[in-house]
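Example record used in the benchmark description.
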Amino acid sequence: MTEIFQTFDVNGNPTELVERSQVHRLGLWHRSSVITLFHPDGRMYVQKRAACKDLYENLFDHSVGEHLIPGESHVEAAHRGLREELGIEAVELKPLGEQRRLCTEIPEHGIRDNEFQQHFKGVYEGDIHLDPQEVSEIRLLTLEQLLSMIERQPGIFTPWFESDLVTFGILPPGS
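Model output (structure tokens):
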């Protein structure tokens, strides 16, 4: 099924509906939500992207990342992503900062990813039911375990993961 994104001008005004592949190929602005989910004991849920993903397959990433569908708010997309990727309902989400503009060039894949992104934080304890088309595994890591993985195996994370966690004060600068 073809994904359709609402696109925007650089000021965030809606422009037109465009297929996902064209949005990324042409570098059109679109919206996404990212969730960093924690267990009540402070450990972080880190997902490993499924092998069938078209980008950064088998790499560790945020708990959930979701592109918005037309007419959807950032928080609605975040809850949909939690439900679809991890089978999680009813998590209270708090925004981490304001919506921000991110520009990521991935020339080897012909992608210019220009997003208006909102990052959220939530706390969850309970069952998780992975969608194998999206997520191959989920790990609960202490910050010390995460820092150790970043130091010993930096290539196992998506390019944006560490910098996002530093930006939002989850990891210390220079991690």
